[in-house]
Records
---
Amino acid sequence: YIRIHSEGKSWLKSERLSRAEELLDRRQFCRVHRSYIINLHFLKTIEPYSKESKVVKLANGTVIPVSRDGYQRLRELLG
């Protein structure tokens, strides 16, 4: 199952996250962690969490962990 959050609403869908990732525009959405895909329009900051890890803060205040690969993808997209 995946949970989709949009405009203050939430939906639960029987789908793999990898399938959702395939359907989304890769210029607007980024998989930052094995459990999270974010909409880059709502990305506020990328911050260090510990020595080797980072988190993203979204416009609504949500904090999401970022994997090493996810950080690389973010850097490439944000150039």
---
Amino acid sequence: ALSSELEPHFFYRELRAIENRLGRVRSYANAPRTIDLDVLYAFPFAYSSSTFSIPHQELFRRSFFVSCALEVIKSVGWPTPISFYQARLRQGATVLIPCETHL
């Protein structure tokens, strides 16, 4: 979890620049990669362009995100969006993975 004063498109460009500096090569869709930085969710915010969307289109299908996001949201005392609880119910407790919250 982090915050930024950058507009979404500029923030996206900064993430891509970091990936490039760390050796990310985009050879084909879903190719193995050294690093992958995504903006998955912004609370309470949505954004869409031809390049990317916030929330990420696959956000609630990623159990690693749902599980860890719930922990982070709880630890900072934010209200939890119902969409997170719904995603957890759809995925089932057996597919959720534990994560460590470092704040």
---
Amino acid sequence: PNGLDFMIQDGKLARISVYADEYDIATSLIRTDRGITVNNTIDDVRVAYGKELIDQENAYEGPDSRYLTWWANKAKTSGIRFETGPDGIVTAIHAGSDSITLIEGCS
């Protein structure tokens, strides 16, 4: 799908990203293990992932847009990051290693 992207670091798959893509409905069919997909709301993410979410301002879109990060382990080597727009809708989901925190998709 157009809205699907992969990041390779040191020859290994480090991250899979799903972006909202108005031209490719397939990206909206990809869900996290807790049922979240692009186009869900920020409240949906908060209910699904709870108090373990780290909530930060989106570096490009300002205080109404958020990065919500959930780590699968205490070492923060594996997790999921959700990006929301100013309307509170999930526009991207990144899953993988700590590379999920790389803002521009590169190191």
